[in-house]
Amino acid sequence: MAAVFFHHVVGDLTVGKPEVAELHDNDTLDAAARAIAASPEGAVPVWRPRATPDEPPSGARFLGMISALDIAAFVAVAGIGDRAMVAVVGEVVQPNPGLLREVDPGTRLIDALDLMKQGVKRFLVRKNGTWRGISKRFSVLYYGKWLKNMDSTSPSSASSSRQLSSSASSTYKFCCLSREDILRFLIGCLGALAPIPLSPISSLGVINPHYCHVDASAPAMEAIQKVPPDPCAVVVVETAPDGTRKIIGDISAYKLWKCDYAAAAWALANLSAGQFVIGADDNESTPISAIPEPPISSSLVEEIGPGRSPRAKKFSSRSIGFLNNQLHQMAFRMRSMYRGRSTPLTCKSTSSLAAVMAQMLSHRATHVWVTDEESEEDGVLVGVVGYIDIFNAVTRTASPATS
């Protein structure tokens, strides 16, 4: 079952991966938002600036990771809407060098999984066209111990090694591997992992009952203060008299991926957690007419015309983000409110591990909330499944003897 983890190396997963596009701590939050929209897990690595233009990425320059939730929370606290997006990334990112590890492309996949189970979220891997690492002889590292390469003493092997070093130093091509890439690899080799993928997650011990939650009536900003490092999510619940919790939605980096940060920040600062995840327009808990309108300047009145109401102005969804006048943007956003993404990603405790993995990959999610199959009511929460829980399940029986 576990042979696939010992026969494959990290370099096998770099095929087709683009080169690292660095986001520096002196870039703006607007640049970070664009980078996050093109990245998995709703977060991107942040690097210190290069000393020279041709300096390659390195673990020494890695600072930490910034997520969509970090940006939305910062803008909400700043209280100045879009103007907060010109702040630099360094003001928001929390330094945590342990989230990224620079690894050799010949590192065994089992070792990569062990690192990710310890909290690593990204691998920085040298990407070189001359490397052909699909065989077992490239698996030189196992649990921190360098293993003897049986071909290392041959002249052809030494020559190949010198060519690899020379080529790598001259091109400096690197790529980043995420936990999503590892999960995609696992989906591609479900047969080699049998029978684990077809087993219910409840029988595998995958369900994590220790999750962070907040009541739907609590302020949305209260949830921000409870967000754990992994998965980066807080579930919004309604608590029944018997103590069971029914899931309403969640506040997470994954849910805020590609969001309108100004609108999301306003909602975080002004709505309850339940309103935030469902959307005030959906449950009509806060009527739009009760929201104060921003002051209208004389130039805006001249543009609209005397005697006409600003409400007569029509906006299409395609125009959001492309309006030049900030007052137009604020008026539209405050009238339309923040539309929450109300449907949380859930599964049953009897779901198979393969089904949960497919859910996460298809939705590009970092976690799936687990509900009780035997409960009479729908949505009774029992736990959460994240990347680390899955990696623990598929490697639990792995041992060198199985290779």
UniProtKB/TrEMBL annotation:
Residues 337-403 form the CBS domain. The keyword Nucleus does not apply. Pfam families: CBS. Keywords: CBS domain, Repeat. The keyword Repeat applies. GO terms for cellular component: cytoplasm; nucleus. It comes from the Eukaryota. InterPro entries: AMPK_gamma/SDS23_families (IPR050511), CBS_dom (IPR000644). This is CBS domain-containing protein. It comes from Zizania palustris.
